[in-house]
Amino acid sequence: MSRMPASLQTSTKPISIVILDDDKALLDSLTYCVSEIGYKIVPFDENDMLFEFFERHNTADVLILDIVGDPSQNGLNVLEELEEKYGENIPRILISSGLPYKNYSGHPALKKAPFVHFLQKPYNIEQFVNAIDILTLQKKSHKRSFY
Predict the structure, then answer these.
(1) Across the strands, what pairs with 146?
(2) What is the spatial distance between Cα 110 and Cα 142, in angstroms, rounded to a whole number?
(3) Residue 5 pLDDT exceeds 60
(4) Which domains does the chain show, CATH number per domain?
(5) d(CA 95, CA 17)
(6) Which residues pair with 118 in a beta bridge?
(7) In the chain, what is the straight-line distance between the N-terminal and C-terminal CA atoms, in Å?
(8) CA gap 100, 90 in Å, rounded
(9) 3-class SS at 140?
């Protein structure tokens, strides 16, 4: 297996990242790439498993929701449920979708989330890693950032 280029290996401490994606191949790819640069990854392909994880651990630095357009497992509904249960103690959020952000910008969950970064598909791995870096470096304030 090839390693990620040194220029993308930016993490110096273990940061836990939870990924929710219903596309198993993409989930595997994202998990591999992000773990190669030093992040601790916890991948899920079903909402129920993600909620069970938060019930048990209630901890993660970043939550990546890559299923925003899927009606049966909509990432924004997942975000809304996490906000109801944990308030502002939810992780920083990376949302990825093939549809533009304007399609989601009015969703109540996005207005409440303390840290949100939107990444437009298709994206390359460098954009993905940069988005994670942005989220892991942000101070505790209501921020929105986009690619």
Answers:
(1) 118
(2) 11
(3) no
(4) 14-138 (3.40.50.2300)
(5) 13
(6) 95, 146
(7) 29
(8) 24
(9) coil
Beta strand extents in 14-140 (DSSP E only):
16-20, 40-44, 62-65, 92-97, 115-120
Long-range contact set of residues 121-127: C-beta below 8 Å, sequence gap at least 24: 121/96, 121/97, 122/98, 123/96, 123/147, 125/4, 125/8, 125/33, 126/8
Q: For 128, which DSSP code?
A: H
Strand pairing report for 40-44 and 115-120: unpaired
Angle CA 36–94–20, to nearest 5: 70
Determine the Cα–Cα distance for residues 143 and 114; give it in Å rounded to an integer.
7
Phi, psi of 139, rounded to the nearest 5 degrees: -80, 165
Cα–Cα distance for residue pair 109/118, rounded to 1 Å: 13
* 112-116, long-range: CB < 8 A, 24+ apart: 112/83, 113/79, 113/83, 114/88, 114/90, 114/140, 114/141, 114/142, 114/143, 115/91, 115/142, 115/143, 116/92, 116/143, 116/144, 116/145
Q: Which two tokens stand for residue 64?
A: 């990546």
Q: Which amino acid is at 103?
A: N
Highest mean pLDDT among 56-65, 87-96, 119-128: 119-128
* Assessment of whether the complete model's pTM goes beyond 0.70: yes
